[in-house]
Amino acid sequence: MTLTLRDVEHIADLARLALTAEEKERFREQLSAILDYAASLQRLDISDIPPTATVLPLRNVMREDVARPSLPPEDVLANAPDTAEGCFRVRAILE
Amino acid sequence: MSLRELTIHEAHRLLRQGEISSVELTQALLDRILAVDNEVKAYLCLMPESALEEAQQADAAIAAARREGRLQELHPLTGIPLAIKDIICVQGVPTTCGSRILEEFIPPFEATAVEKLWAARAVLLGKTNCDEFAMGSSTENSAYFATRNPWDLTRVPGGSSGGSAAAVAADECLGALGSDTGGSVRQPASLCGVVGLKPTYGRVSRYGLVAFASSLDQIGVLAKDVADAALLLGAIAGYDWRDSTSVDVPVPDYVAALDGEVRGLRVGVPREYFIEGMQPAVERAVRAAIEHLAGLGAEIVEVSLPHTEYALPVYYLIAPAEASANLARYDGVKYGYRVADAVDLDDATRRTRQLGFGAEVKRRIMLGTYALSAGYYDAYYLRAQRVRTLIKRDFDEAFARVEVIACPTSPTTAFRLGEKVDDPLQMYLSDVFTLSMNLAGICGISIPCGFDEEGLPVGLQIMGPAFGEEAVLRAAYAYERSTEWHKRRPPL
Known about the structure:
The complex is a heterodimer of chains A (95) and B (492). Chain A has 3 helices and 2 strands; from the N terminus they run αααββ. Chain A has a two-stranded antiparallel sheet with strand order 1-2. The radius of gyration of chain A is 23 Å and the shape is flat. In chain A, α1 (5-14) crosses α2. Chain A has helices spanning 5-14, 21-38, 73-77; strands at residues 83-84, 87-88. Chain A has a domain at 5-43: Glu-tRNAGln amidotransferase C subunit, N-terminal domain (Histone, subunit A, Orthogonal Bundle), CATH 1.10.20.60. Chain B has a domain at 3-259: Amidase signature (AS) domain (Amidase signature (AS) enzymes), CATH 3.90.1300. Chain B has 15 helices and 11 strands. Chain B has helices at 8-16, 22-40, 48-67, 112-119, 162-169, 186-192, 226-236, 280-295, 311-326, 345-356, 359-372, 378-399, 424-429, 435-440, 469-481; strands at 43-46, 81-85, 123-128, 175-179, 195-198, 219-223, 266-270, 299-303, 404-408, 443-451, 457-464. Chain B has an 11-stranded mixed beta sheet, sandwiched between helices. In chain B, α4 links the parallel β2 (81-85) and β3. In chain B, α9 packs across α11 (359-372) and α9 packs across α12. At the A-B interface, α1 and α2 of A face α9, α10, α11 and α12 of B.
């Protein structure tokens, strides 16, 4: 599996990750090598094998719908790079 | 013996007898850290003042218990100085995950495992270094600095819980918490010559453990001997409503399993775990350890785990896929680093992640995003999850015949700093014997079982079925108490 530079740019775009030209080329090579290694999985006949979604013998976990105290807003905001009026502040999305 | 060399159970006995105080013990550990940690570099963050305060409170609790005739009820961790991997949240204490993106992050809540240590009145010395978001096998992927192996400072301690393993090996704490997603407790334990226990998936609450790969992550313990590992596990295990993957199974008395008796215990030896390219000294030590167990009366049974060779590619598709989703939360909005000069929100997100994450984290986000992306999901992610079923079935079949499985923890002893940083696949191969256990969700331990020609420790891995910690600890303890490897100390 040899990835192209365009593949790498597409993946980086999906992952919301800016990359330098050098990073793109390095990841192109390294990811291609890792995917080559993973190609051994294609040898196995697994058509009848179900995927493992969880190793636990659980289907779903339910609990009573009871309100519990949650963190105070000031604690939630304390780690944010920028806040205003009790909210997280970011660059404007719309003009 | 100096105070810093005590095991937890030895220190507990002396604290109970009034021979030592927790303040003395804590001060001895802080002195040791001051003396050697500039070389070992196990700690990211030290908390000497609060540790001494906690020690004073523990001493007061011990004194009260003595007055009231309740010393028998004293928790074995009361007054014991411990360290915690910096990927587990401690309220009010910086938790960086070894990443620049969380450099300033101070958790507003407590991990459940930490809450349980506080309830036992343990003493927290500090937070230990790790590979960024636990992604790595050498602790060289920490954004801050590399930790060194106390047995040879030019070598890695393993990873990702390398800081915790090195701190235990160098007598810079009495025990430590780590996390194990693909071997991150057992492999550094092996490379540092200490005990590392990875509990069953669901045995210990992961509330407050920063997520890497949610179907694989588990909090584990690093200790100087098997009895300490049993004590630590008993303290942190149990159901927690805040982690819906924790399982409501009663927590047994793990220390009671340490009877030293393995006569008739069926120990499986998987032929697939003795592979070409493994270091001969490792194979020799592990085979000798298995012979030793046979000499103690265990029945050695050859077993096969035929899909072992697929564990590495399966892991390196599933873990990055889950990581790519879990790490989407680091966008510079709610917490952590954010670039200062972004032109808009999208630019801020992309460049924050570019500058905040290190190379290995970015590599895995890219790999995982690819494995989950349209057109490749079936061929990579879904196929890996199907092969994972085969790996799990291998273990189910083996554990129908044997109680535990014995094999090497890592194919080599500690490698040199820098040796594998530029070759991700070579680095990944150092986890080749530990990954399968996480994929199958089972438990296991690494214990010291010898040294190579250069005096570097070798680890024996003992694996058990889901919730089979008692059998694992029983076999490990029987081996340990009839050998001397765990008593050796690095030349620091």
